[in-house]
## 1
Amino acid sequence: MSFSKPNRSAATITTTRVEPAPLSGICATCLDGCEGPCEIGRSALKGREVIYPQPFGKVTAGSEKDYPVDFSHFNIQGTAVGAIGIEADSEKATFPMVDCTTPVGADGGIKLEFPSFTGAVGSTDIARINWEDMAVGAAISGVIVVAGENICGMDPQAEFKNGRVVKSPEMERRIQAFKRWYDGKGGVIVQANVEDAKLGVPEYVIQKLGVEIFELKWGQGAKDIGGEVKLPSLERAMQLKERGYIVLPDPSDPSTQVAFKAGGITEFERHSRLGMVDEEAFYRSVERLRDTGAKYVTVKTGAYRPADLARAIKYSSEAKIDLLTVDGAGGGTGMSPWRMMNEWGIPTVQLECLTYHICERLREKGAYIPPIAIAGGLSLEDHIFKALALGAPHVKAIGLGRAMMTAAMVGKTHGRLMAEKMELEGEDIEEGYLRLFAVGAQLKERFGKDFGELPAGAIGMYSYIDRLRQGLQQLMAGARKFTLKYIDRNDLVALTREAADVSGIPYVMESDKEEIDKILA
């Protein structure tokens, strides 16, 4: 049995002529004369361009690999007895009374209306295009939006002095979009990688743009190399090479220029460098960010080997980090090498279980445990409940990268179609929004005359989060947990022996054994 689908994928716009051999993914009978619609065939013509999901700038992509243990291998326990976090009274313990708010940060100072945040919305075209919808959606929903790596370095209008950024209209646009609608809940995180640090992005966004939460990026679940994007022009490729990025193929090479002009090469790749984690250097970086003025310092790590996870948690504990995001394999990307995304890293369930056990070992020693966030292929309220429970009490929030962007993009698309219709009919867009969105009247009452200025994608994202909130409230009420902090590992049951072995969650037929004995005795 193969967990993978090599050599064909909607992500790379490839397929096979006949049913392929399961291991290689090559057609069982590879025919001489076939035009080659598979990844091998397309690579014979376009080479390295086929490594990445297509079309760049218009899609997000998630792993197709069917991992042997995922969140579907657990079910949520319900009970008919009592209530925790509220009086056990049927008139009072109703599901709308469930509190889904949560604090994060070492001091609990970052208040979230809902325990979730976006993925890192960075320098890819799809991130840039959808930023305003997602930032405003986060602001009005009271959740966190993450401005990902390389935004200043990729800004064509950015200004530099002595190799350091002094102005970035694109970064300013992003921060201002969030701040305009921010009302005290949630936040905007700006993320930095190797190039960002060299370009002085932390100092710029903290001191000049007033950003309070800054994130050091170790990695992500979609890949174990630096970030990358595609570049459509020779001029853009040269600009980014001059700013210090790795650009492939080398745009300054005369043979590359000839190939590009002839059409053999249609795009360039901009790559970030690999970060090199060193314990003492990490502590210095955290201290430098705090000295620069960062109120909160967070860290994001990827699906690296278990020893690296231990480093991330231990170093974050020592540095009193405000939030550590652990991103598992199987999640999403704007642009990551497709086979890497499917075939590297520790999947989210296993990574979270390792996270839990490492946190417990540190807790037993009396160490500070940073608030943990889990990300990697999650999208709905049952995922949120299970991820909170599996890592309880350490997991405080859930990253919903592709899911939140999907909601924003769908809201944006339908908003555009509705705006076109309203224009033809001579009606106001506000009326269209009230007709289109289930939460329209709610937001109209809240924002009054400003309602019509909300981006449609932001309303779509708000509507999605509103749905998640009610779904989570219902699941929590069924488990009789009326505040997030009361969710624990006992709220889950493993449906397979393998899931039980991986997680330490009881197998379904062995759950509640001691309590059953007490009841029957």
## 2
Amino acid sequence: MNAATAYGWKKKILRIDLSESERRIDRFVPEQSLLNDYLGGRGLGAKILYDAGRVEALSPANLLVFATGPLTGTTTPASGRVSLSTKSPLTGTIFDSNCGGSFGPAMKKAGYDAIIIAGKSPEPVFIEIEDDRVELKSAETLWGENVKATTGFLKEKGSGSVACIGRAGEKLVPLASIISDATHAFGRGGVGAVMGSKNLKAIVVKGTGKVAISDRAEFSKQKKAINRLLIACPTISKGLSVFGTPFLVKITSWMNVLPVANFRKGEPEQDFNLKPFFAKTIEEERAPKRRACYSCPIACKREDKGGGELPEYETVGLMGANIQNPDYEAVVEANRLCNDYGVDTISVAGVLGCYSELRGKGISPEELVNLTRMVGDKQGVGEELGKGVSSFAASEGHPETAIQVKGLSLPSYDPRGVKGLGFSYATSNRGGCHTRAYLVAPEILRKPKAIDPYTLAGKAGHTKIFQDRFAAVDSLVVCKFAFLGAGEEEYANILSAVTGVDYTSEDLMLAGERIWNVERLYNVREGFGKADDILPDRFFEEKVNGRVIDKEEFLKTLDEYYRMRGWDEDGVPREGKLRRLGIRRKK
């Protein structure tokens, strides 16, 4: 790489300590090598958390790190996302979550690569940022309000982007999320509970600056190249752009990987009608409006005619067939409640799948709505459900009914039929998650090329490559859907044009590998190891559609994966690997 310039990155990090005794607002300039090596977003957050040392998730010492990437705030296609990193109170792992909308671009235009929040305020507060002006203001009158009321009140006072928690975050529900501009979620992992533990209700950001681009002519050329590739990709132009993410429902049901009855069946009962959940039905009956994040030509989000948000694929799949609820309308209402209370839809659906199995019957539409509300309010059985699927199943004496990895509920793809994706669940640094490697792309959508979903052969290598790839993507920060059409080379080219630093696709992959290893070191320091890189026994023991995962083959693949990563037999990165990546092990 060439010498760094002042383009792309703002070279300024804002740190706010909310504690009464330490309350202060500081700004500092990060080392350019840190930005070059970790890019921004998820990578920058991971490095900051690892260097900060061990903490308890809900202690004042835990950090919330909101981080933009070097492409954020430009008009790079699909670059309107922002990353949040913290230690998860649900899983105990390092955790990152990113969301779209306008919060990230507002941060970047206000002049910040990252905002680090530490400490705990003695009283409820919100943070108001407008360029160099940063103020803490009382949130006493907002405490107890849900997301939509909070967002509406704060937007009436100004034109900034709002990220806030609802009552679930205030009550420290381990499934709580942070919601940006009422509908975009920093979901999963209980990040909203961390924000609530700090007595921080919201962050409002308005930026009036611009992001400098090193070579505008080259930037324009590379932007056009990426847009052409996105248009040429049928999965994007004829799938996501036309129908949104629910277009996957018909595909996964056809492949028999749509979870049914808490991952116990391959197909719904004969009287269960999946048609109302199909994207074409939703399109015909609702004529939903397309909604795009900042600088995104894909526009995968959908709203009804009244502007209300419609659920995405994971929510539709897991709140439908997996809990045996036949009513799409109930899923729409439960999704809106999750957004308003600020709770993660995948995790709520996952624990409800467990609850349904233990009761021996499906969850009715009325129950789905009522139980969702109870989780958000931490009332009745909702208090136990809100602790997450591992805790709830253990409290009922049936831990085997918790379909999770490292305490995080699995998304809406049965790993018996997409075995590489299942392997990526098991080896994910943040727990059961499809987006860490996003092998949905090659195993289901056949992008960038098709690979056999029914075998583990070769999946150690595929998993490593895709994990490194999307660690870099999450650090740029770019939407994964763009990589169904474009790739590392195109985004390395546009990154070079923006920053003035010469990046190749190999540089991006190396950065991704560096980030993955830092995250692994964090988890190893927290006590995670080989025993945690595993799927629930159900997938090794119970056949669905004649398929099961061979455990012996799985463990051999895990050993192969460790060797390919340069880790020892327990999954701990070796010193030689760390030296090559420029990482120092810390206690």
## 3
Amino acid sequence: MPTVRLDKVSLSFGLKPLLDNASLQIRRGDRTCLIGRNGEGKSSLMQLITRGITPDHGEVWVRPGAKVATLAQEVSPSSETTVLDIVMGGVHSAGLDGDWEAELQVDQVISRLGLDRDALMSALSGGWRRRVMLGRALVSAPDLLLLDEPTNHLDIEAITWLEDMMLEYEGALLFISHDRAFVRRLATNIVELDRGQLRGWPGTFDNYLMLKKASLEDEAKHAALFDKKLAQEEVWIRKGVQARRTRNEGRVRALKELRIQRSDRRERVGMGDVRVQEAAASGKLVFEAQNVTQTFGDRTIISDFSARIIRGDRIGIIGPNGAGKSTLIKLLVGELEPTSGTVRRGTSLQAAYFDQQRDQLDVNASIMDNVTGGSGETITIDGQARHVSSYLRDFLFPPERLHAPISMLSGGERNRLLLARLFAKPSNLLVMDEPTNDLDAETLELLEEMVANYSGTLLLVSHDRAFIDNVVTSTLVFEGEGRLNEYVGGYTDWLRQRRAGAASAKSGAKPSDKRAGSRTAAALAPAPARAAAPVPGAPRPGAPKPGAPKPGAPKPGAPVAGSPTPGAAKPRKLSYKDQRELDGMPELIQRLEGEQGELIAKIADPALFRRSPADATAAAQRLQAVEKELEVAFARWEALEAP
């Protein structure tokens, strides 16, 4: 039995419906990610489930007696209520008694989210209030949990904890997120809201990307054929006399139907054209910090920090909330003077600053005036005057909305507007403090591409692990007590280097350099290349080919090196059953990888979606199952061969 079901639901707040005869089912154990462009209606769909709004048509059904908990996209307003009372309210709202087990659960959630139980909500920032509301949603152990952009304003440590908790959650989960690493780890299936329609894509996020690409190609081919036929019929009807002589009434009626279908067709919103104006190059040195320490009262935020940032560097800044990431940026750009130490800044710097609080936007002004500053209807882009309507269309703002106040915009739309304002000015230094919050996946990819092509210097604060990996060349990491260390590469590279350092410390090996990942070390040796994404169907990196001996295995008939000496432990002897299983592993893996390749080739055929959507779905589900079977097989192979 499903936990929640939408049956032929329609909902409209304007000319175009947000939901158009849409259906959806979510069952216990499902972890469903709802994705779609900003403004498509994802948050409205969640409000339908919670009865916050009612549909125009259709039925929204929630299993009787099911407990539903939500995390809204916007945090609660500040109040004089304590954190403990707010979180405990999640227990009471679910109709549960505040017994010792409930109090223990509340204490655990408060601790894991790093909350101060006695703090007042009025004293917390928006990010911390969001954590409190997340805790309130989690403590009630709901049957259905609805999370709207849960990772916004959470640091990486909190995001990882949330992922671990959701993997253990046994109820039904529906979440909206554009954090690709979060979606990849959690989602068991993807549901996309696109032009009023809900479509399920079983399997992982990467499977969705592959299937969606094929589906869009197929849609484009169909649309082109339809438009060609319509154009031919329009030419025929305009011949007038010839059309009347043929008296082909059926053809005339068919043309009218084609016109109706074309007018009803909802075009996919185009991709934005996000570009940044680049100023003349700055001096080679951008920033040089020497023994910088920053304290506030008796608290040390940054301790004895030294670094040199040169033109073209792309620096990611990683650390927990409150560690001092924004403080570091303010020190570098000159908005704050250090308690001790010096910061030297280079010449000819022109900075573009993306502020996560969006303080640069005037909430009382229109969309257009926020870009032009109220100075007219044109702006100068790359030295040429351009109408603001044309410029904002690149950021997916239609002309009819230019005079609307920004109070009417969603969080993602406000971020897009801030990007438009930011990139309208030439720069050679891009400072971005949490730019990815609320952006949909496609806008995020455009932003990534823009930053990747930017020839200036980048300072990036972000908790989006995939974004960091894709755009930075080195990271500055807050590692406690004001200590900042520098590492080559992005987030994944930092994790690898940190694990390697921990392993060296555990084994007693002396590291060759206290900051092995720093650019000082990197200057002496090429930076390690990031591992490429595995090709579907190809053997895992480092894994032996099926049927071939594993690396290091003795050749048949060759003496075995390292034979046990008297008194040494004897190698483990496999049972007859385990030995047969081990002997059959290469053949099993070869068969599974062959099936994997066949399924990928099948799904890559765009015609499959038109010919048999059910077969396409079944193939995607089987592909996911095969991938899991391969993981199990490789793990079992290693376990059987372990000494």
